Every structure is written in C-alpha cells, then in structure tokens.
Hints:
The complex is a heterodimer. Chain A is α+β, with helices and mostly antiparallel strands. Chain A is built from 11 helices and 17 strands. Mean pLDDT of chain A is 81; it is low at 328-333 and 358-365. Chain B has a single domain, classed as ADP-ribosylation fold (Alpha-Beta Barrel). In chain B, 19% of the residues lie in helices and 25% in strands.
Amino acid sequence: MMENSINIDLRKFKKIEDIIFLDEPILSHLKYNETDYFLYLVDTDDKSDFYCLFEIDEEKILKYFTKEISLRDLILKNKKFIYLIQEDFSGNTTNINIVFSESISDDYLPAEESYLNYTPTQSSYYYKIVEEYKSKQYLQNLREDAFYLKFASTNLKYADTIGLNELTNELLSNLTKSFKNFLKIDFFASMKDIKSDKNTLNKLFNRILPDLDFRMVDLKWGSFEIGLAVDSVMKSSIENKQIKDWAIEVGSKYKNLVLDEDYDDAVVDEILATYDEEDRRKIFEPIFKITENPNFDLKIKKSKDSKYSTIKIKDKRVIQKILPIREEIFKIEDKDFEVVQFTTVIDKNSSNRAIKLDNTLFVTSDMTNVVLTEDNFKKYGFNDVSNLSIPVNIFSNKSTVVYSAIYDNEKFEVTDDSGKIDDQIKRLVFMIYEYIVNKS
Amino acid sequence: MELKYQYEISLIDDCPVNNESGNKMLFRCVEENMTEKSFTPNAVLLKPKLQDNCLAWGLSLFSTYESAKQMLKSLSKNKRVNYSRIAVVNVTDDDGIKHCSKNELHYTFYPKKDLDIINKFTYVNDGE
C-alpha cells in the first residue's frame, strides 16, 4: 500500500521573478526542469500559506503582461492540472491537492478584471522580451487593419516583377504626392472652423504631418505588394481632439475616395462636391498618371484576406469630369521679342561668353547690323569660302525677330521665334552656303 | 538614517538597494480603518521563510492609483478581504528609503525609525 508522502518542495524550483508583490510575493514565476510555472498565493491562515501552482508558457505570460488575458482566465482556462499547495511559514510543504482548473474554489480566484499592465524596468528578466513582444503586437494590430496595394507590369516579358525605376518614379512618387496633397487640402478644409488663420493652420499641419503617414506594415517584392495602415496609436500624441479625430480618419477617407476601384457615380459626385478643380488636380492627377499608364496595373484590396481589384476607370469621361482638360496647356506661350543694343565691358582674354547684364547699358532699338565673314562659315566646317563680308539686318517684326541678308543680289531671310541668336545665324549661314555650292 | 527593522535589514546583503531620491506620491492598499498594523510588514514578521527577502521588510507602495486598484483585483477573494481602500502618501527623502526594482509601478518603502507613518497617509475616495 502506498503511503502518503509529500515530495514537492517549492524551494527546489528556480525563481525567475516575483510578478506581483504586496509586502510578500503574491504571484511568482518559477521554473523546474525547463517548465515554467506560476505560483499564486491565494490564502493564509494562522499557520499556513495556500498556493495554486500551475504550468504556464512564455506566450501566455506575455499576453498576461499586455492585458490580453486576465489572471483569472490564466487559471480557469488552464488545460493542465492545478496544484493546491499548503506550506508552513518555514517553507515546508505540508499538503498537496491536484484539481482540474474549473474545480478551483472561487475563494482562490482573483476578480474578473484581474488584468495586469506589467511595465518591467531594465533590471527585470522580462524587460527585453516584453519590449519585443509589444512592438510585434503593434505591427500585428496594424496589419489587421491594413489595406494592400499591388503594382505590376502588364508586360508579360517581366512576369510579375516590377523595375526599381518604375516603382519609384511611377508609383511611389505619384502616390505620395497625391496623398500629401490630399492631407493638406482636407486638413485646411476640415479645420477652418477652429482656426481661420492660414499661418497657424500651416504650422499645425507641418507639426502633425509625420504622424499622418501610412505605416508600411507588409511588403512583398517581385510584383511589389505593400500593406498600408493608419496608425491610431501614434496619433495619441496629438493633443487637440478634433485634429486627432481627423488624423485617425483621413487615411481611410483617402483610401475610399481616391483609391477607389472604379470611381462610380456616388464617388465622383462626392469628389466634385468636396474639392475644387485646382485641388482635384493636385490630388487626382498623380493617381491617374499611374492608373492610366497601360504599362502597369495598380490593384487594391481592402484587407489581407480579400481579393485584389484593379484601379481602372473604364469610362474616360469620369477622368475629364474630375480633371477638365485645360486649353491653355496646349497654347504656345506668346513671346514678344525685340532687338536690344547694349554696351558693356568684357575682358578680351576671358573665354567666358556670358555677359553680366548688371554691367551693361541698355538701349532699345528696332534694328541692328552684324556682318557675316568667312570665319562664320568656317565655324560650321565650310572651309572653301573666302573674302566674305555679308551684312545681316536683324530687326523686330511684330512679335518675332527677322534676320535678313543680301548676297549676290539674292535675299536670304530667317524668322526667329525662339530668341536664340546663334541658331538663327547658323540657319542663315547654311542657307547662303547652300546657295554658293549650288551656284558653283 | 536608521530605518525601522534596521537590524534585520542589515543581515541581508545589499539591502536595502539604492534610494530613489526626491518626493514621490505613492499609493498603498489598506483596510477600511487604518491602524499601525496597516503600515507594518506583517508577512515577514509572521513567516520566517521571508526573513531573507529584502523587499519583505519594507512596505509595498504603488506609483499610480490605477496600479494599486489593479493590485486589489489581482488578489484572490480570500486575500482581498484584508484590503478595501487605497491610501496616498507623499514620501520624501527624510521619511526613509524608497526603491523601485523590477516593476516600474511598484515601490518598496523602508520608513525611518520613529516615523509617524499613519498620519502621513490619507484615504483616496473612489471618485478621485
């Protein structure tokens, strides 16, 4: 027959750290043979302490430290047995019971909300692992709310890969330009009630701008998929509630309004109603540069587990609604040339052809003369000419400048609308040389 | 400065550890009616197994009201009966040694001998 004997001695466990201390250890992390345990002081009478000892693992410890699970649930949902240990005040174990976790008396359990926000100091065993866990958790939380963009070449030759040049010049620079413009425009529109002074709003905006950026939380190379998340944790540093609320929402607003797959009527109406033409150009032009480029596909999915849709506006009239074609873009700017004479001093030994206009005296003139000699022709490789002296009249005619010469009773003329004298002289030289060659 | 239980403390190596200087507002879990007993390290006086535990010779205080409340919720039902209120104190360098070890929210306070400790604490009402 087996005799009852108690062979568990808590002093043989290695103590890692006391997690809860209230004049004495209440909750301690122990280790025995590479297995982790929590030892929880649940009662004391006049002779004994009563403990619950149960197995734990690092993952559960970290979840407990970061308030993901309560101490009560760590005990009740424990799949292993709970050891109820009675110990005298000298540290000798006097009794042990083994129970299922669900059979533990309520008297031995902490409150429902027995959460702990453990903030270890640098001398704590947990300092590094808690820091690492918190940053991993932060990333995981961001990933859960992230939306994804995918940018791929449509050229089958490149399979599903994207070039670095295209990535930076086509996608990233246009995307960030559009987003940054959207942030500023939407900020000024949303905050004009609280501060009408533009300088103050500008300062406010620049201060919070770093916290407004999407966080990159996921990345796949090749076709370049990127997960972007709005980080509401960082925005807790923004003190003004209205600005903070706006900052938390603006990322989603941009995603829903600007990165919409098909720009249906409702979205287009909202865009036209909310932003004037100039603002729309700043926000949408960079995006349409990406979406309308036939060499690339830009796709979006609202979460990690959903499917990608291509951002493509099928009806091109939508683009014209949002970005009306500006006629002035296609007009050549009117230039108005005139001939000007000036006097200046130059150093003949200097090979610098630039003339400093602040050392000149200007006189406006309608006409001037220069003389073409054989040197002008030899400059362009026409070495078989000599003894030339051909006056050239340079005069203004309406908005252009005319270079006119008479040689061998023939008139040679070029009209300039570029303002580049050397080019026109060259054209005139070539015309005259052609005549000389053909005549001989 | 001579601390309460100076003799017992001096038997333990590196005890107490360094003092965190400056004034600090700290919170303690206490009974409904505070007595001298509320500010006595009762566990170490009762249980020889704790005599070598440096922290057990001091008093557990918490750096925030919330963390003191959290402590109460973390106690088992049976242990919680001994504590029903939270009291606050402003601990100065003249009052004794205060030390924060592994948990930023937990301090151990070693009062100097003859400190009129009970009059330094006041109850915190739950609405505060």
